[in-house]
């Protein structure tokens, strides 16, 4: 998905695909709504803020743990 299309467009597209997958899941599975976790590790703050403005509330980052 191209960054030029915007964060809001990308989030809508991904959420639509998730909802389509939810609609196809077997009915005998629990009806638990999946949660989209946006990866913010390498993204600029303005992009994360824009995603938040478009309704994204769960963000995640991971780092190598050194001992």
UniProtKB/TrEMBL annotation:
<keyword id="KW-0663">Pyridoxal phosphate</keyword>
<protein>
    <recommendedName>
        <fullName>YggS family pyridoxal phosphate-dependent enzyme</fullName>
    </recommendedName>
</protein>
<dbReference type="GO" id="GO:0030170">
    <property type="term" value="F:pyridoxal phosphate binding"/>
</dbReference>
<dbReference type="InterPro" id="IPR029066">
    <property type="entry name" value="PLP-binding_barrel"/>
</dbReference>
<dbReference type="InterPro" id="IPR011078">
    <property type="entry name" value="PyrdxlP_homeostasis"/>
</dbReference>
């Amino acid at each position: 998905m191209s960054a030029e299309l915007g964060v809001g467009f990308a989030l809508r597209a991904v959420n639509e695909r998730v909802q389509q997958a939810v609609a196809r899941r077997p009915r005998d599975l629990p009806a638990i709504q999946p949660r989209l976790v946006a990866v913010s590790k390498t993204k600029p703050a303005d992009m994360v803020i824009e995603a938040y403005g478009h309704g994204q509330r769960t963000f995640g980052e991971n780092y190598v743990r050194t001992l």
